[in-house]
Amino acid sequence: MNDRKKILVTGANGNLGGAVVRALNRGTATVIAAGTHPEAMQMPEGVEIRKIDYVQPETVEAALKDVDGLFLVAPPLDPEAPAKLNPVIDRAKTAGVRHIVFNSALGVDQNDAAPLRVIEKHLMASGLAYTILRPNFFMENFSTGFLAPMIAQGGIFLAAGDAGTSFISVEDIAAVASVAFEKEHFGADYNLTGPGALDYTQVAKIISEVSGRKIQYHSLSEEAMLKGARDQGLPEGAVQYMGILYTVVRNGWMAAVTDDVEKVIDRPPVSFSDFAKAHTTSWR
Fold this sequence. Notes:
Helix content is 40%, strand content 15%. The model has no long low-confidence stretch (mean pLDDT 96). The protein is α/β, with parallel strands linked by helices and 284 residues long. Helix 1 (15-25) packs across helix 7 (170-182) and helix 9 (222-231) runs antiparallel to helix 10. Strand 4 (69-73), helix 3 and strand 5 (99-103) form a beta-alpha-beta unit.
């Protein structure tokens, strides 16, 4: 890889995109952060900011100008993601992008109808060099993501049953992405997990211990969880997507643990306990 290769990071104002920007910026790449609201993005010194909106082709074309690598993320819980991202992949090829690292999700390769799997297959057939990352649920969901407001109220309310999930920190995903770009892991796909699986009762206990607050997991029925999501204004397509995700969790399919993180970055992924200790202030 040439020094100062230009890498565009989509979703740069999100937890994962921001972590990827930071990881790449510590290396030799020239980093371009892209999002739908560039005016609201605060990035490290030296990082260029561009606008990208997947449903506005002119912004995609402008964002991809003179880009060597692309870190591609889908909008969360979006069943229409293939219609948005597949044209981005096509435009990236036309623009001369050499390498796409696509952030997918653990387990989607088991269901060819899954939206993220549809994107994976389009990318694999594109003729572009690619790397596919399939991470499990993010640890940051608890600290700054969609579960943080629940925890602020003293609970975790989900239809996850008592099954485990091998949560992973976005910092570890970002480290894998950075190496994939730097060392050109073309044609590779990685299933990324934390070092062990925890159920939500165990997670609530860990957060309680580090924060000094009593946090309790409330196991909801799927009907109750989806009603709550609708009441919060989540679009119906996203509500149904959420239902599918937590059906997968309840079935125990998100408890798998892999060593792909350590194989790529030569260190084990952070444990949820260590993550919680480092993010105590998020819950106080």
